[in-house]
Structure formats: C-alpha cells, structure tokens
C-alpha cells in the first residue's frame, strides 16, 4: 500500500473517531445541562414523569448525533470516491503501460521479421550471382564478372530474364531495408546493404536502356548521393 493511501486512511479514521468523540461529548453536555437545571429536584418514581426527560434528551441529542452521522457518512462517501478515482487513474496508467509494452513488443517483432527478410533476400541474391549468364567472351557467373569493367553482358533472352529477376530481388531488399531503418532508427544496416548491392545495380543498369529505366524506376533515391551511376 502506497504512503498516500495510508495517509488517507489515517485521516478518515481520525475524522470518524473525532465525530464519535464529538457525539459522546454532546451527549455528556446534554445530560449535564439537564442536571444543571433540574438536578436539585428529586427523582420521580412515577413512570409518566420520565416522558419529558426522554423528550428533552431525544429532542436535543438526536439532531446532533444525526448531524455527526451525516457528516461521517458524507466523508466516507467522499473518501470512497477519491479511492475509486485514484484506482481508475492507476488502471489507466497500467493500461497505457501495457499498451506501450505491446507496441514495443510488436515493433521489435517487426524489426526482427524485416531483418530476417533482408537476410533471406540477400542470400537469394548471392545464389543468383552464381548463376551463369552470357558475357561477351562466353558463359560465366554473374558475380565473377561483376567488378570487371572489361566485360559486358550479352543481350539475349536468358540474360534479360535474369536481369529482371535480380532487379526485383534488389527492389524487395531495398524496401525491407528502408522499413528496417524506419522501425529501428538504425542506419548502419541500410548503408551496409545498399553499398553492397550498388555495384550489382550499376552493372545491371549498363545492360541497355530498358534496364537503365528499370533500375531508375524500381530503385530510386536509395543510393548514397555521392555515388552516381556512370554514363554509358
């Protein structure tokens, strides 16, 4: 139990105890008042004569006791309302904390799922780099000639299909990288992979005007501004 709640309970107990004491003092004061005025008289042995005494005591003391009881009741109701309001506020804070925790958990889950998707797509691109494609001097893996500017891809249907497939994989990788950066606020993974795939995109872009337009359309504004595609 928190200190504020204990303090409120002590105050409530003190108020109710004070009202009880005030009621007892009031009763004693009424009896004293009656005794002070009529104490010199002999106590009557006739039951009918005790009626005025009862009327006096009841008529004076009952409103006082009733008032104290009403004040005590109102105070108790007020304290209950305060406790209920505080309980609702605490429940609201707990609900907000739980909602925030759920949001953070959901966000972490999205970050992890996005990172797994990035790794899967990257592995797929790595496998595609081992695929054989037609170069100007024969069939070689795409990756083996990636950084060798002395060679260029031959323009045939097999290479065009490969170019489209790997371009779509690059697009999905970039989309997931951007999502990961937005969710996590971490730019390192985004920069690592974009720098890694930039040579691939540059090589594909040099294939022909169709792939140039495809790369520019599918992967716009995702590469470092200082690293510009070369003209051809």
The main pleated sheet reads as: 2 strands, antiparallel
Basic shape: rod-shaped
Structure class: mainly alpha
Low-confidence stretches: 222-232
> How many β-strand stretches?
2
Helix proportion range: over 70%
Radius of gyration over alpha carbons? 44 Å
Distance between the termini: 76 Å
* Biggest β-sheet: strands ordered side by side in the sheet: 1-2
Q: Helical element count? A: 5
- Portion of residues in beta strands equals under 5%
The string of secondary-structure elements, in order, is HHEEHHH
Average pLDDT over all residues: 77
Main features:
about 230 residues; 5 helices; disordered C terminus
Description:
The chain has 232 residues and is mainly α. The chain has five helices and two strands. Strand 1 and strand 2 (138-141) form a beta hairpin. It is rod-shaped, with a radius of gyration of 44 Å.
Helices and strands, with pairings:
Layout: H1 3-38, H2 50-129, E1 132-135, E2 138-141, H3 157-184, H4 188-205, H5 209-218
Antiparallel strand pairs: 1-2
